Amino acid sequence: MNLHHLLEKRRVAGKPVRVALIGAGKFGSMFLSQVPHTPGLEVPVIVDLDPDRAREACRTVGWDGARIAATTFTKDGAAATGGNVEVIVEATGNPAVGIRHARAAIAAGKHIVMVNVEADVLAGPLLADEARKAGVVYSLAYGDQPALTAEMVDWARATGFKVVAAGKGTKYLPIYHDVTPAGVWGHYGLTAAEAQSAGMNPQMFNSFLDGTKSAIEMAAIANATGLDVPSTGLLFPPCGVDDLPHVMRPRDKGGVLEKSGVVEVVSSLERDGRPVFRDLRWGVYVVLEAPNDYAADCFRQYGLKTDSSGRFAAMYKPYHLIGLELNISVLSAALRNEPTGQPQGFRGDVAAVAKKNLCAGEMLDGEGGYTVWGKLMPATESLKTGALPIGLAHRVKLTNDVAHGAVVRWADVEIDTTDDAVAFRRAMEAKFSR
Question: E strands within 299-393?
């Protein structure tokens, strides 16, 4: 709670926290918009596939000419690890590229803030292990749901409560799993032309809708907190904030969970498409259990929403501001040497599942695409099944037919075993399956 004070001391001492940003998309741009208003924080290097676009993004978010002129814009990822940069923010969204950038940062002795949750779920436990051994911080990105949820779980445990469930809200119906980029905009209330004029990527937005992004984020939370993953995948129960303690409790207590201590996503839509009352579409939550009657009485006395027993209560944050909040991770790493969430083990994985009947010879197109969506699985079950991670299901050819709704396996695709991302993922599986 003293990050601003610590940053002010650095500013007065003439030692600003210096950050390199890799990927100046929406998340990165939101972060950049806060930089001019955070004295003591500097971003001298921005790496992007299109440096001119990154420069224009800085203008759009309010950087003046002098700040832009003093910044290096480049395609070269190696530029991020040079000089006196302390923290590298990886915000590309590409799993393989993210792993490469994170390992380069760690090797260079730089802290790494992994906005790229796709890379984190593909190999984050091993990346975090490498960072710890190197004496640098590997961190989830504050402002995104995984770090915010991990913070709430930590709060609950540190105050002596048992965590029953934790996760986020989203817009979900079962039919969304098969939605492709061709049909995505209707579910957002947009025309294709409107989306194109706004620069919106249909495959990326489809990954938010078809369940893939939710699965990835819940895997990241499970790996960071030690919470379990539902054995058959996410349930997405319809639930508003007032009903969290009632719905998000174990089945033997009247709720929908198979057991206590799991991650789960709640839907902002009833199964017939009606909106849920006081939904949590943009927020995160934790459901906790009172350890004794006295604590349960306190829940009631201080106005917490509880179930009918009074033993289960919920805390929630109705919104998340993604890149606008990223400074918390950057400053926590640089000034406290602490992450805002970090994988501690390999508990959750995200497997590629066929959106239609797929035939040998077809090319998979990754998360949010036409061929597969990502399903949350316990890591033990994923390894046992030989499931292909969604993060490696892009531009790979099927060697076997895969039925609609079936998990795609490593054995079903042509995999380049010499690829760095594949090799690193395999190394993580070997280390954390012992």
Answer: 312-317, 348-354, 363-365, 372-378
Please report, for residues 99, 287, 420, the alpha-carbon distance to residue 114 in angstroms, rounded to integers and kept in the order given. 10, 26, 18
The count of residues in the chain is 434
**Under a CB-based contact definition with an 8 Å cutoff, are residues 299 and 306 in contact?**
yes
User: What is the reported pTM?
Assistant: 0.96
pLDDT, position 197: 77
**Domain-wise residue ranges, the chain:** 3-142+324-336, 146-172+211-320, 348-432
| Residues 6 or more apart whose Cβ sits within 8 Å of residue 65 | none
> What pLDDT, on the 0 to 100 scale, is given for residue 219?
98
Return the biggest CA–CA distance within the chain. Answer: 63
When the pLDDT of each residue in the chain is averaged and rounded to a whole number, the result is 96
The two beta strands, 284-289 and 372-378, are unpaired
How many other C-beta atoms are found inside a 10 Å radius of the C-beta of residue 62? 13
CATH class of the domain comprising 3-142+324-336: alpha beta
Q: Cα angle vertex 207, ends 375, 102, to 5°?
A: 85
Task: Report whether 72 contacts 2 (CB < 8 A).
Answer: no
Over pLDDT 70: what percentage of the chain?
100
Classify domain 348-432 at the CATH topology level. Type Iii Antifreeze Protein Isoform Hplc 12 (3.90.1210)
State pLDDT tens for residues 30-82: 999 999 999 999 999 999 999 999 999 999 999 999 999 999 999 999 999 98
